[in-house]
Design a protein that fits this description.
Bound molecules: adenosine-5'-diphosphate
CATH class of the domain at 69-231: Alpha Beta
Largest sheet: 9 strands, mixed
Distance between the termini: 58 Å
CATH architecture of the domain at 69-231: 3-Layer(aba) Sandwich
Radius of gyration: 24 Å
Strand content: 15-25%
């Protein structure tokens, strides 16, 4: 493998005018006085442990709550690096994790990038075919695995020849594996030093690898570099970003195998936050109890998580004291405004909406309740109109919307186009996988259809593959879903296209009702008619008990469409034919 293949995040300097900067260096020596320190993760990941060594990392385990300090975490990370070095892991080698959110996973987040190797976070919810493909494509040499996940890897044991060693993270369950070369995590690090000389490598060297979930075609690898993640980490801590600070107790519910846990493990390690991790306990009641117990101030997850947590809080209005919780970061798909409003009105919790992708490290835009001084004057209703948008761009990034002939469209809040993004932490190619359609002239083609308004807010209309094309016009499935979910008595809604001989496609809504709710199809359609034109209304409303979710907890529209097709579903006006 050539080193070139590793440089796949945009190698732009901080300014987009490289030639100019170069010229200044040569013509004005006085401007060359700053140190050219490479932006390496090893410089920032141990900072929190140094500044506030006794702050805690808390993990909910089957055996009770596991606690260790930031100092211990960094020391154990250092021992992991020593052990991997001794084993023969070199700069650039891929070391994979197949794990829940827990303290050992955090140690790997610190150790592997810092030693110059690449942390490849395997998505534990992928099927065996995708997993086999990803492990082989990445050529992982070592896999760290939580023992309860061993059975998921077992069918692949003979099909992943690059994997030489399995490091098992035991939690007292004594689950066996047939893999020949295994070692217990604690045995791996036991006799290792708590000091390591972190290598001085090029800041464009790779440090993390994530594959997209493969909803279209094979999963594609995104290789983050030290520089891209370093800059992303600093930006994430900005007050105008998520206002993360050393005073926070951070609970990342977004899995650490998804888009690097949205960068939170890195930022929290740099700042010295308390870190609270749910391990495999994703039941909303357990999450609420954990957040209350550990006085969590900020958490992050996809909308379906926050819908579940809301249901728990609503069902037990007096049981939990969540007054310490001030921000919930929510992204991955559009959170319904009604939910954001509920958290604010009922508990004074600000839901911070973020838009991003695996390909964008992942933070692209963020929406805060009050994002500009001029917004201080807005009414709360107006503030929520803004927070419903996907947000304002992170510094250093650029977005544009383009029409079909690559002409940029105005930022008028009306024009719709394909969203493209570029900047220092945006993917510029996939790892060993040329996909020319996904890039255009230095931009990443996001696959999202969007508007940008005159205030520079990004507004995602839909994923291009989920938009519904009816009679030559587009209907946003997301807008319909948000409106339906706002109805009392509705828990979840998914709107998908169904083929129609005359109109091309027509929308159909799948709806989950709260137990005992008497909401009817007619009522939902009437409610939609208050906002949408007649031709935009769903042709059908199907009440269901469950809506399939993707490996990252988003509504899985591809599966819904496939299920409807396999059930030979027909739109109401086609049934008689
Ligand atoms: P995948 O869903 O393919 O596993 P990603 O997590 O990278 O992978 O998904 C990125 C996509 O998720 C974006 O392109 C966009 O369609 C959607 N998305 C992310 N955040 C938001 C948001 N706040 N609002 C609407 N859509 C979002």
């Amino acid at each position: 493998m050539t080193l070139r293949k590793h440089f796949i995040m945009e190698p732009f300097p901080l300014s987009y005018a490289p030639r100019q900067i170069h010229d200044i260096h040569h013509t004005e020596p006085g401007t060359m006085t700053m140190q050219k320190t490479p932006l390496l993760m090893s410089r920032i990941l141990g900072r929190g442990a140094k500044l506030d060594p006794n702050e805690e990392v808390v993990t909910l385990l089957e055996t009770g709550t596991h606690r260790q300090t930031l100092k211990t975490t960094w020391e154990r990370a250092t021992q992991v690096a020593c052990a991997l070095d001794e084993y023969g892991i070199k700069v650039g080698d891929r070391v994979a994790s197949f794990m829940w959110n827990n303290y050992r996973h955090l140690e790997l987040y610190q150790a592997i990038p810092s030693m110059g190797a690449v942390l490849h976070t395997l998505n534990i919810r992928l099927g065996p075919v995708d997993l086999e493909y990803i492990i082989n494509h990445a050529e992982d040499r070592v896999i760290f695995i939580d023992e309860d996940l061993l059975p998921l890897l077992e069918p692949l044991i003979d099909k992943i020849p690059s994997v030489e060693l399995l490091v098992v993270c035991r939690h007292g369950q004594n689950i066996e594996t047939s893999f020949a070369n295994t070692i217990d995590y604690e045995d791996l690090i036991r006799d290792q030093q708590k000091k390591y000389s972190w290598p001085e490598i090029d800041e464009h060297s790779p440090m993390g690898l994530c594959y997209t979930s493969g909803t279209t075609g094979k999963p594609k690898g995104v290789m983050y570099t030290h520089r891209s993640t370093y800059l992303h980490t600093i930006t994430q801590a900005m007050t105008d970003s998520m206002s993360l600070s050393a005073l926070d107790a951070v609970c990342g519910i977004v899995p650490m195998f998804h888009a690097m846990g949205w960068g939170l493990p890195f930022t929290a390690s740099m700042l010295g936050c308390k870190q609270v991790m749910p391990h495999r306990f994703m039941d909303p009641a357990k999450l609420v109890a954990l957040m209350v117990e550990e006085e969590v101030t900020i958490s992050a997850g996809v909308p379906t998580i926050w819908q579940g947590v809301r249901a728990v809080l609503e069902a037990n209005p007096k049981k939990y004291d969540i007054t310490k919780l001030s921000r919930l970061t929510c992204g991955g798909s559009a959170p319904p405004v009604s939910m954001m409003r509920w958290y604010w009105d009922t508990h004074g919790i600000e839901m911070v909406q973020g838009w991003g992708m695996t390909e964008t490290n992942p933070l692209g835009t963020l929406s805060r309740k009050v994002a500009k001084r001029s917004h201080l004057q807005l009414t709360e209703d107006q503030q929520f109109e803004n927070i419903a948008k996907q947000g304002l761009l992170m510094p250093g990034l650029e977005i544009e919307i383009f029409d079909e002939s690559w002409q940029p469209q105005p930022h008028d809040g009306e024009s719709v186009g394909e969203l493209l993004i570029r900047g220092p932490w945006i993917c510029s190619e996939y790892f060993n996988d040329p996909q020319p359609d996904k890039f255009h002239d230095g931009w990443l083609v996001t696959g999202d259809v969007a508007k940008i308004d005159p205030e520079e807010y990004l507004i995602i209309a839909d994923r291009s593959k989920d938009l519904i094309k009816s009679g030559g016009e587009w209907i946003s499935s997301v807008d319909l879903e948000n409106h339906i979910v706002a109805l009392e008595g509705v828990t979840q809604a998914a709107v998908v296209a169904q083929p129609h001989p005359k109109w091309d496609e027509r929308p159909v809504a799948l709806v989950i009702l709260v137990a005992g709710s008497n909401v009817t199809k007619e009522f939902i359609l009437e409610h939609c008619a208050s906002l949408f034109a007649k031709w935009q209304l769903p042709d059908d409303v199907i009440f269901v008990k469950e809506i399939p979710l993707t490996s990252t907890g988003k509504i899985d529209k591809k599966t819904i469409r496939a299920e409807l097709a396999s059930e030979h579903y027909k739109l109401p006006d086609l049934r008689a034919r």
